[in-house]
């Protein structure tokens, strides 16, 4: 199995790597939670595409057991038949409907090097988050709250 160069990736934890083009700064905890959802679903029959800012990826595992590393590898065509898409869109617009939105004022940042099962909330400062879900897609829209 060919090795993946970690130079093209941002390391979110000891074992989770995402493309360096993804805007992860400040959203590390959120991306770790999404990565864990995909990793935990790896035994299912469906293909899951995790797409951030129009950069689609699929999960590629290297190693076995406790040595397994999880890379979200870029793909060119996310339109695979039967694929479930998790889409993250980050914006700076402040004209967001209050429907299905959540505002986080948690200023704590996670500094742990692993995915914590005990971390109850997603810590995202200064963003409204709107989630839209359909049969084959879940989308998270992040809208920066502009100070007035």
* Quaternary status: single chain
**N-to-C span:** 53 Å
Largest sheet report: 9 strands, mixed
Number of helices: 1
Biggest sheet strand line-up: 1-2-5-4-3-6-9-8-7
Shape type: globular
For the secondary structure, the number of strands is 9
What share of the residues does DSSP label as strand, in percent? 35-45%
Average pLDDT, rounded to a whole number, is: 75
Radius of gyration (Å)? 16 Å
Domain unit count: 1
Runs with pLDDT <50, length 5+?
93-123
- Class of secondary structure makeup: mainly beta
3D structure, described in words:
This protein is mainly beta and 148 residues long. Helix content is 9%, strand content 36%. The chain contains 1 helix and 9 strands; from the N terminus they run E-E-H-E-E-E-E-E-E-E. Strands 1-2-5-4-3-6-9-8-7 form a 9-stranded mixed β-sheet, covered by helices on one side. The longest helix has 13 residues, at 28-40. The N and C termini lie far apart (53 Å). The relative contact order is 0.20.
């Amino acid at each position: 199995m060919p090795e993946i160069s970690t130079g093209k990736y941002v390391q979110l934890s000891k074992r989770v790597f995402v493309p360096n083009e993804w805007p992860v700064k400040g959203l590390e905890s959120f991306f770790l939670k999404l990565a864990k959802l995909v990793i935990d679903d790896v035994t299912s029959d469906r293909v899951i595409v995790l797409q951030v800012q129009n950069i689609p990826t699929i999960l590629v595992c290297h190693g076995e057991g406790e040595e397994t590393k999880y890379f979200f590898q870029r793909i060119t065509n996310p339109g695979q038949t039967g694929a479930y898409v998790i889409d993250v869109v980050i914006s700076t617009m402040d004209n967001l409907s209050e429907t299905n939105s959540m505002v986080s004022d948690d200023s704590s940042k996670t500094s742990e090097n692993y995915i914590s099962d005990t971390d109850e909330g997603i810590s995202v400062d200064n963003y409204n988050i709107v989630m839209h879900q359909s049969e084959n897609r879940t989308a998270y829209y992040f809208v920066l709250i502009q100070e007035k």
